[in-house]
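Hi again,

Forgot to attach this to my earlier email, sorry! This is the prediction with flavin mononucleotide bound. I've pasted everything inline since the attachment limit keeps bouncing my files.
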Amino acid sequence: MNELLNVGEFLDAAAAKIDPAVWCYFEGGAEDEVTLRENLAAFSRWQLRPRMLVDVGEINLETTLLGATVSMPLGIAPFALQRLLDPGAERATTCAAATAGALAVVPTLTSYRHAELQAAADGPRWLQLYVQTDRARTLDHLAEARETGYTAVALTVDLPLIGRRERDLRLGFAIPPEIPLHYGTLVDVDPTLTWRDLEWIRAATDLPLVLKGIVTREDTVLAAEHGVDGIWVSNHGGRQLDGVAPPIDALPEVVEAADGRCEVYVDGGFRRGSDVVKALALGARAAFVARPIAAGLAVDGEAGVSRVLELLRDEIALALGLLGCTSPEQVSRAHIQRALS
Ligand SMILES: Cc1cc2nc3c(=O)[nH]c(=O)nc-3n(C[C@H](O)[C@H](O)[C@H](O)COP(=O)(O)O)c2cc1C
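Structure tokens for the complex follow:
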């Protein structure tokens, strides 16, 4: 693992190691994968504007997310079925995040129970929620999350239906029945969920609420009017509606529409520390990564995830310093421009 220098090399190593009929699930996107590719390509259309002769002798990456201090403006996005890559699965990713002082967002489709994760890792954790058709099951899930130390709920809103992932169909990927899923399944996700149900969720838990999967100013305004605590700009890693704009391009309109009423986060295609710094410049409070973490988990379990987080942390610190900033808060809209050609 030590010879792997960056996230791209981790992804290549994971692809070489994991059975293609399994890795397709982690790597792939929906239909023609236009959005999957654009998520990555979009970063090169934004250029940084570094300032010189700034004292960057001491760089501190710490920030707060919904009031909780984290060691860097990068967290682990929720991704399902981690046990397909390593038996440590969500326990390994949550422990690696805790060791790094980073935020871990645990998926509804975890194979470990929340109490097991709480016992294993003493770090900040949010719950990713899929509302199940059986609402009683979701109420139980929220109650359990409250009891096991979660500090926020990230409600995923971009999966009322499951995107058509043709790599999976081609290679015959199916969720192995032996993976225990205690809190819900994708086929039981409730497709009738609407804005009115946010009140129901609000009544069911006093944890702060983040909406994951918002990409328009219209929905940002509605989210803010419904009093959400955070908006997470995301297109589900290009796995849902193909043809959606890359999150880094949707971010400015969401930040503008949020108008400081709630925190804004972003994920999708982040592979370098400089990508994270671009998101900060466009007004995100933090970025999240899923496939880079999946690659770390596949290559070397918890140690692999720790290494990926360490590489990204070092890259963020370097990019920040070269930009002429010593903390995430110092990065501003003046540090970025749309590519001129
Ligand atoms: C294999 C895989 C499984 C995912 N499962 C979930 C999930 O269960 N819930 C969810 O909200 N998002 C899920 N996502 C989306 C991620 O949270 C995230 O939005 C996206 O993958 C970020 O892009 P990146 O993989 O390029 O970093 C999944 C993504 C992948 C790649």
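Residues 36 and 130 are 22 Å apart (CA to CA). The chain is about 40% helix and 15% strand.

That should be everything now.

G.
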